[in-house]
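call fold(seq) -> tokens
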Amino acid sequence: RPMVITYRTSALTWAIGRRMLHVEHVGLPNLLAGRRLVPELLQEQATADRLGAAVLGQLDAPDHETRALQAAFEQIHLQLRQDASAQAAQVVLELATNGVPAALGVAADGQTADDGAAQHRTER
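ret:
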């Protein structure tokens, strides 16, 4: 499936973002892969003509490039799935041990972090 990432923001937002974020890529697939998997058309590059050309380029890509892209996406999927399983296992372990998963932000005494902060403010 062809994919092209496009982003357009206001000039001010773009200028601030460029100064604050020091990343090579902005699209999630490219960030997760640590390299350019799919084209990114940003700001003035995000035109209908360039978008069309990028999609057509992917549709016309040789089979070996398409298979390599599919393999890269499969690898990302497997990595994300592993992390999700580990996180789910941690929540189950905490539930079995403490009765309430820490991920839910509830302490063993039933207070949430917000409850404790509110109580601290009223005690002052």
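Residues 116-124 have pLDDT under 50 and may be disordered.
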